[in-house]
Amino acid sequence: MADLARELGVSMTTISRALSDHHSIGAATKQRVLKLAKKLNYQPNHLAAALRKGQSRLLGVVVPYIEGKFFPSVIQGIEQAASKAGFSVIVCQSHEEVQLERRNVETLLNAQVAGVLVSLARNTQDFYHFDKVRSRGVPLVFFDRIPPTEQVNSVVLNDREGALQATRHLLEQGCRRIAHLAGPAHLNIYQHRRQGYLDALAAYGIAPNADLIITSDMTTDDGARAMRQLLALPEPIDAVFAAGDSAILGALQVLKGQGIRVPQDIALAGFSNEGFTAITEPQLTSVDQRCEEMGEAAVRLFLELSAAPDAPFVQRQVVLQPELFVRESSRQGVLSLGGR
Amino acid sequence: MADLARELGVSMTTISRALSDHHSIGAATKQRVLKLAKKLNYQPNHLAAALRKGQSRLLGVVVPYIEGKFFPSVIQGIEQAASKAGFSVIVCQSHEEVQLERRNVETLLNAQVAGVLVSLARNTQDFYHFDKVRSRGVPLVFFDRIPPTEQVNSVVLNDREGALQATRHLLEQGCRRIAHLAGPAHLNIYQHRRQGYLDALAAYGIAPNADLIITSDMTTDDGARAMRQLLALPEPIDAVFAAGDSAILGALQVLKGQGIRVPQDIALAGFSNEGFTAITEPQLTSVDQRCEEMGEAAVRLFLELSAAPDAPFVQRQVVLQPELFVRESSRQGVLSLGGR
DNA sequence: CGTTGCTACACAAACGTTTGTGTAGTTTAG
DNA sequence: CTAAACTACACAAACGTTTGTGTAGCAACG
Description:
2 copies of one chain form a homodimer. By secondary structure, chain A is of the alpha/beta class. Chain A has 3 domains: 2-44, Orthogonal Bundle (434 Repressor (Amino-terminal Domain)), CATH 1.10.260; 57-157 and 290-320, 3-Layer(aba) Sandwich (Rossmann fold), CATH 3.40.50; 159-289 and 324-330, Rossmann fold (3-Layer(aba) Sandwich). Chain A has 12 helices and 12 strands. In chain A, the strands form 2 sheets. Chain A has a 6-stranded parallel β-sheet with strand order 2-1-3-4-5-11, sandwiched between helices. A 6-stranded mixed β-sheet of chain A has the order 7-6-8-9-10-12, with helices on both faces. Chain A starts with a helix and ends in a 15-residue tail after the last strand. Residues 335-340 of chain A have low confidence and may be disordered. At the A-B interface, helix 4, helix 5, strand 2 and helix 6 of A face helix 4, helix 5, strand 2 and helix 6 of B. Chain A binds a DNA duplex through residues 1-2, 10-14, 16-17, 20, 22-26, 29, 44-54.
């Protein structure tokens, strides 16, 4: 900047303001500055700007992990929206550990991020580490896995609706004894999916049966274990709705190992619309989570928040509508190819 | 820091040096400073430090995309190693576009990253945008997809060896007319995989046949298309080795659709050891890429480079050894469960 | 004619660190 | 006993921006 100023015979103030399109700089001067900046290949030092302004063009994201389909896709959406708004994204993984989550939040704050986007770790039960974010006036948005009680800004999927759709679909296929593989109840997403399952049953006048609801961490192994447990029940079941695709995959593998036909004997439906749902045999019915939309929505929310830095807090929540992808694992009597 | 200095009646210099364990500060003073820093919950502003030192604790990573298994796992490895060394990681996607790759590199440099780790976009053919990185003295490490001719630091998989192992394995199973689904030849990885395939054939005295080598972008659709093309050949083939798992998946789907048995009629082997290789029926033989090791190695290389900032350039390359996971798609006559 | 409100710019103080240089006093080596 | 080396700290200048305040000229308004 000093070079530019010297070259044009103006002050650095003028340069700075010309580059940031300040109103008090004349159009002619702005043009001259921009042109020379191009010519000298001026590279702004964002660090210095961030230091001065106390705010960078970095957006911090904390997710439990980045494997599978969901989080990479959400991050994808975040990146896209963020870069459109001139922000770069810095991603941290909590590995489902609240301690790491805390450390990550610290790190991001120290990097002077302009905002923090968080999806909670599985074992996060207290939320004090987010107080610091708010007290520094840094916009904070939760997505997918959000704190249960707190007044927070968030974007979530309508998990209840998704589960309801999936379960209703199974009911429409004629299934009546439908089991549910549930996830940890303290996470909002699993709680809502369970509720959707129950609501769908209730709509058909079916009383919930505790034996048919199995709670676990929803890994493939958990799903397999749960399936074996369900098969051991005196009265046979005719469908399983799992709150995650990995679990339903485990269930499918057990069923195939035992020669039980899917969907004729037992129909299956999962949640997340993972890539592999279109690969298994039969292909797996699943609820799509609108991953990229979620990322975009989170960024939009962040932008709104940072546009009005010290507006009084109003809770904002964006709720996305899920979409059920019906595939072979739940279509009674019909053999069909492809998704949707 | 000013608070600390006032409280302890020393200068800010002393505070700074105590915190960074400078030798010229007495042990007693250091203790007092550290203790008070804890007590006052002092949070260092890394931005200011970065500005002053002209270098941050951020590590920039540019990858083509973050879907599938490979890149997320590499990033995982990078994150782990980086955070161990006190660095945070900022990830950008080039979406296989050289323009975006260029922009990303600019962005990272402007964020004053301490180093840049890159895996090239598919259509990157010139490498001028990396000159700026070097000229700023920022350590630069390529991984997996690296420039062909340039003198660069890199960590790669021994792709040739992996392809050789896979092809040799198919030969050992008795296959003799083995097709190869190849990727864009200007990318080192696909070039080496093709070479490994050729070398394995040569070792068995088999002359390469141009009809059996089909080059594409290696998507699932490409794989399906290629498979159909191969099936139309007058003389039938007995195996396919693809340079990527998506392509081999497409091939598998075509074969199953036509009732051709795998591996009895045609054996299959892929590359990347994607998650779905253990899910398909039959499960797919594939070459594992040591993703996380690659990430760790890249960070290690970066750390070495930044330890000796203006040492004369010596080209360094870390080559990781792949591992073949033999599964059902290539095991003639044997039916077995599980990986490895 | 005095006030207000523009346009167009410059001065200089921040932002929170790091670090070269300086200055004592104390120890060690020859 | 003197020079060199070390310990322990302080001063103040950076790093590259942004921004509140100031100033000066000029037009418009009542």
